[in-house]
């Protein structure tokens, strides 16, 4: 997955926006103000921090040692850093981004979740 493909995929979700609250180089993808992905699109290797269910996070780290690690500068229980351009299947990266988005949406207040369901 290229940086452009990662960016486009993150922005493809309902109400997703790109923001730069930390620096102009760090893309933060949010849904209704809540972060679901954080990346430096020009960095090599290309990595992205993604929210993850704690049990899944541990399993993924074991299955993809060195490519999925505890979230850098994040809550290590709930976030993973995923190396996007180092051999992980694009399908898996997409699933992890979508899972991160879904976890963040699930944590939104009910009224905001319902707003997302409207066209």
UniProtKB/TrEMBL annotation:
The keyword Ribosomal protein does not apply. One of its GO terms (molecular function) is DNA binding. The keyword Cytoplasm does not apply. Keywords: DNA-binding. This is MmcQ/YjbR family DNA-binding protein. It comes from Streptomyces olivaceoviridis (Streptomyces corchorusii). The lineage of its organism: Bacteria, Bacillati, Actinomycetota, Actinomycetes, Kitasatosporales.
């Amino acid at each position: 997955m290229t940086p452009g493909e990662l960016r486009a995929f993150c922005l493809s979700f309902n109400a997703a926006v790109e923001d730069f609250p930390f620096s102009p180089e760090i893309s933060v993808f949010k849904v209704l103000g809540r972060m679901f992905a954080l990346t430096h699109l020009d960095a090599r290797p290309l990595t992205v921090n993604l929210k993850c269910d704690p049990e899944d996070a541990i399993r993924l780290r074991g299955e993809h040692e060195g490519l999925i690690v505890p979230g850098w500068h994040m809550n290590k229980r709930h976030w993973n850093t995923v190396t996007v351009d180092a051999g992980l299947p694009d399908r898996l990266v997409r699933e992890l981004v979508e899972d991160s988005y879904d976890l963040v949406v699930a944590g939104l207040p009910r009224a905001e979740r319902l707003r997302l369901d409207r066209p």
